[in-house]
């Protein structure tokens, strides 16, 4: 009942018109770059406390530099030194597992190398693998790094010392291991990817989902698309339901797996939402959000979210991700005036209008308070959000201890909504701050 009351309260008070994009930090991740330089292969992930982490490479002339940066202390700071590179960098893939940062990087066009940041420096995991940009790097739920290498159709696992070939395929059409979340993992540690099979009778591709459990590969029995084209991005929504995207006749389509077959969810015509740079994610309420070039939409009615309020020219959205704090984030390519290609991270905020809450579901005391409050329902790892009475979103962060919360030091006197997201739903209450 507590979850229902709080959910209804939030659904009534959150308005689409109140949403807005704001920079995480400022424009841009690296400002003041050479006008002839460009940034590529941007990737976005998060630490458990919702700290954004990005990877990218910077190219000026024939020289490339790979970097990882995280947003701490109100600014973007580099993680360690520049990434080691044995040649020109063409791709960087970022993964964060239990606050450990990893990158897979393609250098010299043929060397696929994986690095781990140990808190002080980058160290290489085993030898480099012969590969190219057609790969996927993923870490399973047990912390084991995997490389799905399209070049030789081989899945490698890192055993702590070296990369071990777990299985090699002999498919007529190579698997769709091409980055950008072409492989997703569920709560049971099963890894899903798209496999296209060429039907020599109809000369069309039959697209299936294959499941790798760490040892063997099993296809789902139902084909999700048959036609002249292969599938794209896979995603699980917040309840664990698998979704797949594919392109057919200049139309992007999304289907969902019901357990016994595929169910149509969405068509987006090229003239409506674009064919290229099509990405999607699910927000905290499980609503499907699309991004196309530099625009984002709610998928149910194609209603546009607010335009990205960039300082420079927005080139396109590289990633759209639901963060651990239940906010939607994007990394975007951007052209600041007088500078080379750069990129930024922005967050979609959803201010609320605080109305009378007849049945608070959080017990907060003392109330009024000025520095520390006791919240019996609070557990370490819960996500706390604070909104001012005028609807302004103040802060979202992850609780570091049970039953006690330190208010932000600069929080002015006033009345606030305190919302706590747990694994079981929402709780919320009203707090008065008086210092």
3D architecture notes:
The protein is mostly beta strands and 435 residues long. The protein has two domains: 1-17 and 351-435, Sandwich (Immunoglobulin-like), CATH 2.60.40; 18-349, YVTN repeat-like/Quinoprotein amine dehydrogenase (Methylamine Dehydrogenase, Chain H, 7 Propeller). The protein is 4% helix and 50% strand. It has helices at residues 2-13, 270-273, and strands at residues 20-23, 38-46, 52-60, 63-72, 75-78, 89-97, 100-107, 111-117, 122-124, 129-130, 135-139, 145-149, 154-158, 163-168, 184-185, 191-199, 204-212, 217-219, 225-227, 231-236, 242-248, 251-257, 262-269, 278-282, 288-292, 295-298, 303-304, 313-322, 328-335, 342-349, 372-374, 383-388, 393-398, 404-406, 414-422, 425-433. The strands form nine sheets. Strands 6, 7, 8, 9 and 10 form a five-stranded antiparallel sheet that branches. Strands 15, 16, 17, 18 and 19 form a five-stranded antiparallel sheet that branches. Strand 24 and strand 25 form a beta hairpin.
Tally of separate helices: 2
| Topology, number of strands | 36
CATH third-tier fold name of the largest domain? Methylamine Dehydrogenase, Chain H
Q: What is the CATH top level name of the largest domain?
A: Mainly Beta
Task: Supply Rg.
Answer: 23 Å
- The CATH superfamily of the largest domain is known as YVTN repeat-like/Quinoprotein amine dehydrogenase
Based on secondary structure, the structural category is mainly beta
Average pLDDT figure:
81
Assembly level: single chain
Residue runs with pLDDT of under 50 for 5 or more positions: 1-17, 270-275, 351-358
Biggest sheet: strands, sense, closure?
5 strands, antiparallel
Total domains: 2
Using the 3D structure, state the CATH architecture of the largest domain: 7 Propeller
What is the distance, rounded to the nearest whole angstrom, between the alpha carbons of the first and last residues?
34 Å
Global outline: globular
Helicity, as a percent range:
under 10%
Q: What percent of residues are in strands?
A: over 45%
């Amino acid at each position: 009942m507590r979850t229902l009351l709080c959910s209804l309260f939030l659904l009534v008070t959150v308005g689409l018109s109140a949403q807005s994009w704001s920079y995480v930090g400022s424009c841009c991740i690296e400002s003041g770059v050479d006008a002839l330089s460009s940034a590529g292969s941007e990737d976005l992930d998060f630490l458990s406390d919702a700290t954004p982490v990005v990877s990218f490479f910077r190219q000026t002339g024939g020289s490339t530099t790979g970097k990882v940066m995280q947003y701490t202390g109100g600014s973007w700071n580099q993680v360690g030194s520049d990434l080691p590179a044995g040649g020109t960098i063409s791709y960087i893939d970022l993964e964060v597992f239990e606050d450990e940062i990893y990158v897979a990087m393609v250098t010299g066009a043929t060397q696929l190398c994986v690095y781990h940041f140990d808190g002080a420096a980058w160290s290489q995991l085993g030898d480099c693998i012969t590969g190219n940009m057609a790969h996927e790097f993923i870490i399973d739920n047990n912390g084991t790094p995997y490389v799905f290498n399209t070049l030789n159709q081989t899945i490698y696992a890192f055993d702590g010392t070296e990369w071990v070939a777990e299985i090699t395929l002999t498919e007529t059409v190579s698997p769709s291991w091409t980055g950008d979340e072409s492989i997703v993992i569920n709560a049971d540690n099963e890894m899903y990817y798209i496999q296209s099979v060429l039907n020599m009778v109809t000369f069309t591709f039959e697209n299936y989902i294959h499941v790798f459990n760490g040892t063997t590969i099993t296809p789902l029995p139902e084909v999700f698309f048959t036609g002249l084209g292969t599938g794209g991005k896979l995603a699980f929504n917040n309840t664990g339901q698998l979704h797949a995207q594919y392109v057919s006749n200049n139309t992007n389509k999304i289907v969902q797996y019901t357990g016994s077959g595929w169910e149509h969810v969405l068509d987006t015509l090229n003239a409506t939402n674009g064919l290229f740079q099509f990405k999607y994610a699910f927000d905290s309420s499980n609503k499907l959000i699309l991004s196309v070039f530099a625009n984002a939409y709610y998928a149910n009615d194609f209603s546009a979210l607010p335009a990205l309020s960039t300082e420079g020219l927005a080139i396109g959205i590289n990633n759209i991700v639901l963060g651990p704090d239940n906010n939607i984030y994007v990394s975007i390519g951007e052209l600041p005036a007088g500078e080379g290609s750069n990129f930024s991270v922005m967050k979609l905020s959803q201010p609320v209008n605080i109305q009378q809450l007849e049945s608070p579901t959080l017990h907060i005391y003392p109330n009024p308070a000025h520095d520390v409050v006791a919240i019996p329902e609070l557990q370490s790892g819960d996500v706390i959000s604070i909104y001012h009475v005028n609807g302004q979103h103040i802060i979202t962060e992850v609780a570091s201890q049970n039953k006690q919360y330190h208010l932000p030091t600069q929080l002015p006197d006033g009345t606030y909504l305190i919302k706590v997201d747990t694994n079981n739903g929402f709780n919320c209450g009203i707090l008065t701050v008086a210092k």
